[in-house]
Design brief:
Shape: elongated
Number of strands: 10
Strand order of the largest sheet: 2-1-8-9-10
Number of domains: 2
Radius of gyration: 20 Å
Largest sheet: 5 strands, parallel
Strand content: 15-25%
CATH topology of the largest domain: Rossmann fold
Structural class: alpha/beta
Number of helices: 10
Helix content: 25-40%
Oligomer: single chain
CATH architecture of the largest domain: 3-Layer(aba) Sandwich
CATH class of the largest domain: Alpha Beta
Length: about 270
């Protein structure tokens, strides 16, 4: 296989671990490059245990300067709840919206809204460093995952004098089982690359396989990560990471995988 091959991932079997219902776009990107894709959702997205805090925040939206959305799940659950409470989008007229990542901005576009700010590196950490306004005394609403999210963003915003109200908008958990055909493929070493698009998918993948598969089996499989935070979790739990996207998006991850395969066979 050489760099001129128009379909570079032909003959490569890739396991996608994104949440059920959220993997189709990524699967298509990989299939367009010729990959055979298997899916193993390592994440389940559900409503939060209570809507109380989010409902209260929605009722008081006029008191916030900024709304921060760091994932497509946050966008989907926030706006769906807004509609459930009988509110229309005019309620957001005086609230500025910051999002992390192109995907999140894309989800926002479905509601005919465009963000007032997207940090340059598509990661939450660059949000504070590049925030377009003085953060002192800004009232910020941050709808987020109920448990297990990273705390860095809130700590950094608070340190700069912002008042951050965190509300659970959705919950993510570990699925109860692995599809038998995926487990079999892992055991038979017929999967070439496993992809991870978040730290949580690494954690839950590890939880799902640790009693069913010897971990040294993963040493023979290429591990591909969407960015530094996910790579760190791969190193901690799986002992390695082979590919890391330079642009922390699904397109970026696809590109990194193509490059890696081409270099290997080049």
């Amino acid at each position: 296989m050489s760099n001129s091959n128009p379909i570079p991932l032909t003959g490569t079997t890739i396991l996608v671990t994104r949440a059920a219902g959220q993997s189709s776009e990524f699967c298509q990107l990989l299939q367009q490059q010729g990959a055979v894709v298997m899916e193993m959702p390592a994440l389940e997205i559900t409503p939060p245990s209570s809507w109380f805090a989010l409902d209260e925040a929605i009722a008081n939206l006029h008191t916030f300067n900024w709304l921060i959305l760091t994932s497509t799940n946050a966008v989907d659950y926030f706006f769906s709840r807004l509609q459930d409470r009988g509110k229309n989008l005019q309620i957001l007229e005086k609230v500025k919206i910051a999002v992390v990542g192109k995907k999140t901005a894309g989800s926002l576009a479905q509601y005919n809204l465009s963000p007032d700010f997207i940090p340059p590196d598509f990661v939450a950490d660059s949000l504070v460093a590049n925030f377009p306004e003085e953060l002192l005394n800004q009232n910020i609403l941050f709808p987020r995952v109920e448990t297990g999210g990273r705390e860095v963003l809130v700590q950094e915003l608070t340190a700069k004098g912002a008042k951050v109200v965190e509300v659970p908008a959705y919950q993510s958990g570990c699925p109860s089982s692995i599809a038998p055909e995926v487990l079999q493929a892992l055991r038979e070493k017929s999967i070439d690359i496993i992809t991870f698009a978040s730290s949580k998918t690494v954690q839950y993948f590890y939880q799902l396989i640790k009693d069913k598969l010897p971990l040294d089996r993963l040493q023979e499989i290429t591990i591909a990560s969407i960015g530094p935070q996910t790579s760190k979790t791969c190193q901690e739990l799986l002992g390695k990471v082979d590919i890391e996207a330079t642009e922390y998006t699904l397109e970026g991850l696809t590109e990194a995988i193509v490059k890696w395969v081409q270099n290997k066979h080049g």
